[in-house]
Design brief:
The protein is mainly α. The chain has a domain of 58 residues. Helices cover 49% and strands 0% of the residues. The chain has 5 helices and no strands. The longest helix has 23 residues. The chain is elongated and about 45 Å long.
Length: 115
């Protein structure tokens, strides 16, 4: 019975091993995906203002620009955007993160990428 319960849990897991993909490669890809989503949310929230986004994320502005370039994210694409429905004064954008959790978030920068 215990084996069956474990199998059901494993079958419902959102993350499944992929043939030929090592654990480290899977973790690297997950970290890159998270980093990209974080940056997109940051740019949306700050309407493409890199200085404000850098302050909020506690990153140096130049480091943030480097991350944006790595992920091919253009801050200007987020300027002047209004929420669906538009019209009039835009309400502040909704945050895709929790401020308290974000305050405790840390990132490790990879040594260097040879591309």
């Amino acid at each position: 019975m215990e084996d069956m319960e474990l199998t059901n849990i494993e079958a419902n897991s959102p993350i499944q091993p992929v043939d030929g993909l090592s654990l480290n490669e899977g973790k690297r890809r997950a970290a890159e995906d998270y980093e990209r989503q974080y940056l997109l949310g940051l740019m949306r929230h700050h309407h493409g203002n890199v200085s404000d986004a850098a302050r909020r994320s506690q990153l140096d502005r130049h480091d943030l620009r480097r991350l944006l370039q790595r992920h091919q994210i253009e801050p200007r694409d987020f300027r002047g955007c209004s929420p669906p429905g538009g019209g009039g004064e835009s309400p502040p954008p909704t945050k895709p993160w929790d401020d308290k959790a974000l305050a405790n978030l840390t990132f490790e920068m990879p040594a260097s990428r040879v591309g």
